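REVIEWER CHECKLIST
Item 1: Sequence provided? yes
Item 2: Single chain? yes
Item 3: Sequence as submitted:
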Amino acid sequence: MEKDRPVPPSPSDIQLRVDSKRGATNVIHPVGGVTPPLPSSGVAGPLVYTEGKHFQKWFPWLIPSFVIATVVMFIFTMYVNNCPKNSATCIARFLGRLSFQPFKENPLLGPSSDTLQKLGALDVGKVVHEHQGWRLLTCLWLHAGLFHLLANMLSLPVIGIRLEQEFGFVKIGFLYIISGFGGSLLSALFIQTNISVGASGALFGLLGGMLSELITNWTMYSSKVAAFITLVVIIVINLAMGVLPHVDNFAHIGGFLSGFLLGFVVLIRPQFEWFSQKYASPGYCSTTVKSKFKTYQCVLWIISLILLIVGFTSGIILLLRGVDANDLCSWCRYLSCIPTSRWSCKTEPTYCLTTLAGNQLNITCSNNGSSEVYILPNPSSSEIQELCNDLCR
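Item 4: Structure as written out by the authors:
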């Protein structure tokens, strides 16, 4: 009697074992299939594949490095700021050079705006007229205060480490930097009267990348609708908080859009059937899959790449020409701040005219015309700016 021939495993029986060099064993199976038990020695089991780079787990070191570098940069910023030398009053003066500017000048517990500008804050005037385009990137590593730093650096590991584990440091580092640049670019086009700092644009880029990665690799996920809804709600809530005053929501929007489009380009994964065919052990045959990616993945890749190139090119040209995007879109300012009876969205910087005669300092606010005389021996620029801010309130 003839023995039955072995039947090739169906897609739901296929199991992929990824033997990590770090000792961990990961199992990846098609959506909808039930994960069978791992085969033991000498016992027949499901089809086993060799390790594939598209599904290996990476050790996350870049995102933690970004966090450390940003914290070190904040400490250096406070050291350069040297509040006791440049201001009459400081918060936490026992910290010496690292003490914070007064609450009236910086309620976020941080340095003066002059220090931030000196170290590379985004200043549109300097970018356009003094050709300091590097500020579009250096501003990502600066933060306005301790509260600002904690909010961003506590969020970055939560969002970024999972992405780096899945896609590696090259792709996620590229996504982070380009998203931050996109956020700075949109911010520079719409907010041209104040300086801007912070990694929020890059953070929103990682959120955008998570969303586009879920969409472009849709068929690989189980519980994908729930994951999609949860992620969209998180993004909407965070963007909605950006309409409060003193928050640069244009950096958030620009970073999110950059990361969302870039995610379709760099976070794309091959379809499981192609991967199974490529890494199957010799002797097994399965359904031939010629295309590495599905058609909709390729369409999204092409469209996103075109939009990225057009968007960044147009934005850079408009910025270098000194165009104020508010003149092109009069209602867009409400995307960053919605005025109410409780707060104002006016963000004009304060300017004062000063005259110094001996120890007598006369300050006149250019914004409201108020004038005051102070007795100060050798006042510093930071002290004068602090008095100007108080006078113009």
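Item 5: Key structural point noted by reviewer: The CA atoms of residues 33 and 382 lie 65 Å apart.
Item 6: Recommendation: ____
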